[in-house]
């Protein structure tokens, strides 16, 4: 083989080997790029997996629960309290026994005791004082365990005409009216009046 043939053969091999190197190099670059992409993708997945996910806080909505509906009940009205009316009686249960009086600068009114036919005290007996105009001058007051009562009309000497009366439990007249007069003279006048009553039937 001549020298010219040898040179041309070498020249023909060099371009072919260069192409192979280039192809191999490109293949390696492609593999490196693919591996880099895969590694980057895995890194992101790991980072997302390690980052705790915070669930959004639920928004509380105020709700109104109506109370259970109760059926209306037929509740009877409370018994009405009888109102005493100034009146006399022809058949008294209690009779006036005696009365006494004394001056007082502290209060004006009545006090005394209610007893039965044997002279024993009667507790829980209602009494009232009326004004001259026929209106109640005091609330209804009941005797205590010893049959005693006290009805204060004012915390000072007071001039007036008053009628005291014993009542039944339903606030009807149980005695005749007993009328007395008071005045404002705390030294010689009448402010405290004692009235004693006795049950006759």
Please describe what this structure looks like.
The chain is of the alpha+beta class and 201 residues long. The chain has two domains: 1-51; 94-199, Immunoglobulin-like (Sandwich), CATH 2.60.40.10. Helices cover 24% and strands 26% of the residues. It is built from one helix and eight strands.
Summarize the structure.
It contains 1 helix and 8 strands; from the N terminus they run H-E-E-E-E-E-E-E-E. The protein has 201 residues and is of the alpha+beta class.
Helices and strands in order:
Elements: H1 3-50, E1 94-102, E2 108-115, E3 126-131, E4 141-142, E5 148-154, E6 160-166, E7 178-182, E8 192-199
Parallel strand pairs: 2-8
Antiparallel strand pairs: 1-8, 2-5, 3-4, 3-6, 6-7
Features:
201 residues, alpha+beta, Immunoglobulin-like
């Amino acid at each position: 083989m001549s020298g010219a043939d040898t040179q041309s053969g070498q020249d023909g091999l060099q371009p072919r080997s260069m192409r192979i190197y280039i192809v191999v190099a490109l293949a390696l670059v492609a593999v490196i790029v693919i591996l880099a992409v895969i590694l980057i993708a895995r890194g992101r997945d790991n980072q997302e997996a390690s980052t705790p996910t915070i669930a959004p806080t639920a928004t509380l909505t105020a709700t109104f629960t109506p109370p259970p509906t109760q059926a209306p009940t037929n509740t009877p009205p409370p018994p009405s309290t009888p109102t005493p009316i100034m009146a006399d009686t022809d058949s008294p249960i209690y009779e006036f026994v005696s009365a006494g009086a004394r001056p007082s600068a502290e209060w004006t009114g009545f006090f005394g005791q209610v007893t039965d036919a044997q002279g024993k005290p009667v507790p829980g007996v209602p009494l009232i004082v009326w004004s001259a105009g026929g209106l109640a001058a005091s609330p209804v007051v009941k005797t205590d365990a010893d049959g005693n009562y006290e009805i204060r009309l004012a915390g000072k000497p007071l001039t007036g005409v008053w009628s005291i009366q014993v009542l039944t439990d339903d606030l009807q007249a149980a005695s005749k009216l007993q009328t007395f007069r008071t005045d404002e003279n705390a030294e010689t006048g009448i402010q405290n009046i004692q009235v004693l009553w006795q049950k006759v039937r």
